[in-house]
Amino acid sequence: MSLSLESYRDLVIELAWAAADVLKEYEENPARWQIQAHADLSPVTLADQAVDELILNRLRDACGDQEFGYLTEETHQPGPPLPQPYVWVIDPLDGTKDFIQRTGEYATHIALVHQGRPILAAVAWPGRDTVYLAQVGEGSYRMTGTAPPYRLVVDQARAWEDLRILTSRSHATPELEAFLKQMPQPSRQKMGSIGCKIAAIAEQDADVYFMLPSRTSPKDWDLAGPELILTEAGGKLTRFDQSLLTYNQGDVNQAGGYLASNGQYHQQLCAMLQRA
Questions:
Q1: pTM, entire model
Q2: CATH homologous superfamily of 6-151
Q3: Complete edge-to-edge strand list for the sheet that includes strand 86-94
Q4: Cα–Cα distance between 88 and 70 in angstroms, integer?
């Protein structure tokens, strides 16, 4: 099957905006959240489930099940890779803790994966009323309101000592602090949601974000969509050995640590992180 990605771009954009609307509606009504916990004890709310159902139903209606598989945070069951040649990888609410804390730093990720790699993606950042869209080989774009799409290009003109590093608001560790002490007085900012952090790099608001190996690994749906937004803007997202991540491999855990950056010092940072 030869797929025309252009025919799915409008659908992905529409779904990203619809997800943002649902999340903002829930954010304004905490009584509807019904906070529970996933098996890994991470929080989940009715907002996660409502957006998951919205996206999944619309994609299935449009794409069917013969050529397209569906891998979502809320419906995933352990097992082998999905057999379809194209797989939608969906995180309805990335940054649920930030959603609950109402920081505005949460996102929806939608990615279409083929042969283990993302080829079309959207990330909705409701707190900024923004949707990011990327298609492999076609660039990365920011869409806000009625403004025309704006093509994103990472900032690769930073001095080493001026690198702006993003860290997680909820996953600080002694190992992370020890590594940051090796950096030359870095600018550090805490931010929620992997999607928001990676979008910030694509927007030239930051330069580096990494996650050290830990007991809780990010999943396919945490990274597939944001990765394409970043790489199509000229950045990089790899493991510390600079190998690419692959998705829909059966095990959805992206264990072992990874680095997202503007690409300027990616090789140097990977070498440092391998020694950390």
A1: 0.94
A2: Fructose-1,6-Bisphosphatase, subunit A, domain 1 (3.30.540.10)
A3: 68-72, 86-94, 107-114, 117-125, 130-135, 139-144, 150-151
A4: 5
